[in-house]
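FORM 7B: Structural annotation worksheet

SECTION A. Query
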Amino acid sequence: MILFCGLWWSGPVQASNSACPTVLQHVFPRLQDEKPQDLCQYAGQVVVVVNTASYCGFTPQYKGLESLYSRYKAKGLVVLGFPSNDFSQEPDNNQKIADFCENTFGVKFPMLAKTSVRGPQAAPIFQQLAQRTDTTPKWNFYKYVISRDGREITAFGSMTGPTDRKFIAEVERILQKP
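SECTION B. Predicted structure
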């Protein structure tokens, strides 16, 4: 057993699947029940990765993220939420965060267990995203749009909400690519 994302973990930490983009070759506990989720299950989809927090001025972006997910999931979009306390605005445990997301904002998109998103303790996916885009999350609700093949990644700061025209245009552009 190893300590992974603040949880004791006995399963694989990294998935190995050659058809899966490197940036998605990770396993994370699911927020609701801490069951392992292989991110390779989202290979071939456009993935929006976002670090979240329950006690942040940007927390209402959950509503826009859920709307984005509902609107485009049939076209191959998935939103992956990663709660983080890196900015001291997510002190709750996974179950409380899950309840808050579902009961307050009706979040149905996949949420992963609370993790670190910046610095040397950042989860490997966030280390890769930072390396590939030359930017780390500066605050909560920082967004990365990953193309279906994982070759193209675009970063958006917290001030760009999920309903912002520039953000939607990028999502739609990436969704049109094979």
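SECTION C. Observations
The radius of gyration is 15 Å. The first strand starts at residue 2 and ends at 4.

SECTION D. Sign-off
Analyst initials: ____
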